[in-house]
Amino acid sequence: MKLARVDKKTDWDDFIAAAGGDFLQSWDWGEFQRQVGHQVDRLALFDDQGRMAAAVSFITQFLPGGKNYWFCPRGPVLASADATIWNALIALLKERAGEEVLFWRFEPTRNFSVESVGRHLVRTLDVEPSRSLCLDLNQSEDELLQQMNQKTRYNIRLAQKRGVTVEISRDAEEWWRLLRITARRDHFRLHDKKYYQKMLALPAGRLYLARHRGRALAGLLAISFGQTAVYVHGASDDGGRHLMAPYLLQWTALTSARAAGLRYYDFYGADVGKWPGVTRFKQGFGGRIISYPGTFDLVFRPGYYRVYQWLRWCRRLGR
Q1: Is residue 298 within 8 Å of 103, Cβ to Cβ?
Q2: By residue range, what is the domain housing residue 193?
Q3: Does one domain contain both 186 and 118?
Q4: Are strands 39-46 and 2-5 parallel, antiparallel or unpaired?
Q5: Which of 26, 84, 262, 297 lies most in the core, judged by the most C-beta atoms within 10 Å?
Q6: pLDDT tens-digit profile of 197-221?
Q7: In terms of domains, do 251 and 155 share one?
Q8: Are residues 102 and 210 in the same domain?
Q9: Is the pTM of this model over 0.90?
């Protein structure tokens, strides 16, 4: 087997989609990461017949002292969980890493097991959520409504009755306004404005804005890849909560995905312990919980890695 770069978008995306990969491993997401200033590499493992057996798109995260590590969101993507593929991929990545790369941080998909890798890994803090809520769209709209929580159905109809409308938009200014309000209210950090502007420009991205009498009350950004539309970001104004705009917003996004021929709508992070309110909101629409193995570090340089862990611990302690 050999490891080589892939320079053709169709070859990359066709493999990722066929193997059930996430939009975070898609070609366009890698290009978006480059646009916001990251170094992105796409490597594929080819078998002896020249067929792609695995693909890994990763971001190089730079550290002091000329060191770095690789971060692979929702990947690598493998054609199968064959231990031979895992072992060949790890051996070739380790060889490629050289002296500068301390470790490879990756988020394997559901065909992963520690045993299939056959070597010690360090389980670390999740970067992307390890639990998600996924809704099967291969149903009629009536069936989708019937499987919802009664309160969710009621709130969708209430929003419609009270004159809330939903539009597909490219209004970056309004979206940024809603994001800032939400970040201030829920106490989380945003990227800079240009980051979200570039994300809006993704070919597979769709921004939905819910309005009432012309005022934007809530927004939702969904990104589609393969058979799935993913709810990536949501934001809302502080006013107009009695209008229940987020319910109609989600309903419009998922029915639009269904109309476009997609099979699944992924509500993304769902964990009652971490995010109780938003998780209950998502669960009101039905669907099932999908669990991922988590985030792992494959260590190439153990001594440096221990220093990295200590510094990371000190940084978190100081917050």
Answers
A1: yes
A2: 131-291
A3: no
A4: antiparallel
A5: 26
A6: 999 999 999 999 999 999 999 999 9
A7: yes
A8: no
A9: yes
Residues 53 and 93 in one domain: yes
The pLDDT-based confidence of 49 (bands split at 50, 70, 90) is very high
pLDDT at residue 159 is higher than 90: yes
Chain-centre distance of CA 41, in angstroms?
Answer: 18
**Separation CA 226–CA 20 (nearest Å):** 8
Predicted confidence (pLDDT) at residue 153 exceeds the cutoff of 90? yes
pLDDT in tens, 99-150: 999 999 999 986 676 666 666 789 999 999 999 999 999 999 999 999 999 9
Number of domains in the chain: 2
- Identify whether residues 34 and 102 lie together within a single domain: yes
Q: In terms of domains, do 297 and 183 share one?
A: no
Which CATH number fits the domain that encloses residue 201?
Answer: 3.40.630.30
Residue 49 shares a structural domain with residue 168 = no
